[in-house]
């Protein structure tokens, strides 16, 4: 019997149930497809696709399925990034996806809404953990 988790809205469910553990990893081709989205301008799509570890592969799959890139413009995403310690560069209406691994990780966390600011202390956290974000 196949076990399947069904839900209507990925972003809503991911706020209370960490879905990364349930995600299959994106293939090299699927990562290239995500990076080929009209809203993204990758610095080095081939390197990102071929050198991605499990964490990156799952986040690319999550980003593909989230609909974020189809719902918001690059400028809207850039504006919403203020205060989240992520540098978003927009060039010709597209988000420059960095080849640098730490910057790429931070951008994927932001795009997948895996960063949040504590309501009282305003400390920046990675979601589904109480580990402070780097």
Explain what this protein looks like in three dimensions.
The chain has 134 residues and is of the alpha+beta class. The chain is built from seven helices and five strands, in the order H-H-E-H-H-H-H-E-E-H-E-E. The strands form two sheets. It has a three-stranded mixed sheet. Strands 4-5 form a two-stranded antiparallel sheet. Strand 2 and strand 3 form a beta hairpin. Helix 2 packs across helix 4 and helix 4 runs parallel beside helix 7. The longest helix is centred in the middle third of the chain and has 13 residues. The radius of gyration is 15 Å and the shape is globular. The termini are far apart. The relative contact order is 0.15. The model has no long low-confidence stretch (mean pLDDT 87).
Strand proportion, as a percent range, falls in 5-15%
Order of helices and strands: HHEHHHHEEHEE
How are the strands ordered across the major sheet? Answer: 1-3-2
The low-pLDDT segments are none
Distance between the termini: 41 Å
How confident overall, as mean pLDDT? 87
State the oligomer. single chain
Q: How many β-strand runs?
A: 5
Major pleated sheet: 3 strands, mixed
| Helix content estimate | 40-55%
Structural class, by secondary structure, is: alpha+beta
Radius of gyration: 15 Å
